[in-house]
Every structure is written in structure tokens, then in C-alpha cells.
């Protein structure tokens, strides 16, 4: 599978969210435009152009030959988040996720419940590394 090119702008992310919300059947440009326009003022042509760019870069896949075309996301939300986060960590933290977390802790941007969740995730990851046959929860 070829990964999509580049990152996503906030507006492109809104478009992806609209497509993900429509599920496996995908979304027509009009449906995407309505979803984005419900949040803020945006022209249909702007959304059409952005959908076209996202398709060319591999973020969206146009399904079928019937019009109106329906678009589905090439990757799910979690896959997209992992891909973009990995690129961010590579670009800004030299590939070190630990440096990212330390930066967040230093900026006091993590809530206590987020810190607890991170501790649990790290503990779980450590257990899987020690015993690779153990299935994660």
C-alpha cells in the first residue's frame, strides 16, 4: 500500500473528518461541503479543489464511475493520526517520541488523567517488549 503524500492542513483535516463520518460508503463533495460549511463559511468550489488535491496526494480514493463521485479515506483515523504524529516526531524531535513527551510535560500541557494514561501505555508497551508473545489489551 502506498502511503499518502505530505501532511494535512486544518481544512484538509476537516474534509477527512467529514469523509470518515460517512463510513465505508464514502462521501460526495456536496456532503463534505455541507459538513465543513456547518462549522464555518466555505465555498463549495474550495472544498471541491481540496478534495481533488487530497485525491491526487493519495489521502482520498474516488469510488466508482457513477456521479456524483463518492470519496473514501485511504487510511482510517487512527492510521492517519499515527502517520502524521510519526512525521511530526521525526521532523521536530529527531525521531524521539520521548523528547516529545518531555516537551509536553515541560510545557505543562498534559492533564493528570492524560499522564496516567501515558503511564499505563508505557507500562503496557514495556510488558510487551519483555514478553513479545503476550497480547496487548
Characterise this structure.
The protein is elongated. It is built from 6 helices and 2 strands; from the N terminus they run H-H-H-E-E-H-H-H. Helices cover 58% and strands 6% of the residues. A two-stranded antiparallel ribbon has the order 1-2. The protein has helices at residues 10-21, 29-37, 44-56, 77-93, 97-106, 112-130, and strands at 60-63, 70-73. The protein is mostly helical and 137 residues long. A hairpin with a 6-residue loop joins strand 1 and strand 2.
Beta strand count: 2
Strand content: 5-15%
Point out poorly predicted stretches: none
Helix content: 55-70%
Largest sheet: 2 strands, antiparallel
Provide a quick synopsis of the model.
The protein has 137 residues and is mainly alpha-helical.
Structural descriptors:
elongated, 58% helix, 137 residues
Topology:
Layout: H1 10-21, H2 29-37, H3 44-56, E1 60-63, E2 70-73, H4 77-93, H5 97-106, H6 112-130
Antiparallel strand pairs: 1-2
Helix pairs in contact: 1-2, 2-3
Amino acid at each position: 500500500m502506498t502511503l499518502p503524500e505530505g501532511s494535512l492542513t486544518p481544512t484538509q483535516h476537516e474534509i477527512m473528518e467529514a469523509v470518515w463520518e460517512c463510513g465505508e460508503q464514502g462521501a460526495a463533495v456536496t456532503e463534505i461541503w455541507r459538513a465543513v460549511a456547518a462549522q464555518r463559511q466555505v465555498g463549495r468550489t474550495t472544498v471541491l479543489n481540496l478534495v481533488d488535491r487530497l485525491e491526487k496526494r493519495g489521502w482520498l480514493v474516488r469510488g466508482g464511475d457513477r456521479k456524483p463521485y463518492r470519496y473514501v479515506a485511504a487510511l482510517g483515523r487512527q492510521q492517519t493520526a499515527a502517520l502524521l504524529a510519526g512525521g511530526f516526531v521525526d521532523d521536530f524531535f529527531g525521531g524521539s517520541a520521548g523528547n516529545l513527551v518531555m516537551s509536553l510535560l515541560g510545557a505543562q500541557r498534559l492533564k493528570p488523567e492524560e499522564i496516567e494514561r501515558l503511564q499505563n501505555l508505557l507500562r503496557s508497551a514495556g510488558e510487551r517488549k519483555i514478553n513479545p508473545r503476550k497480547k496487548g489489551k
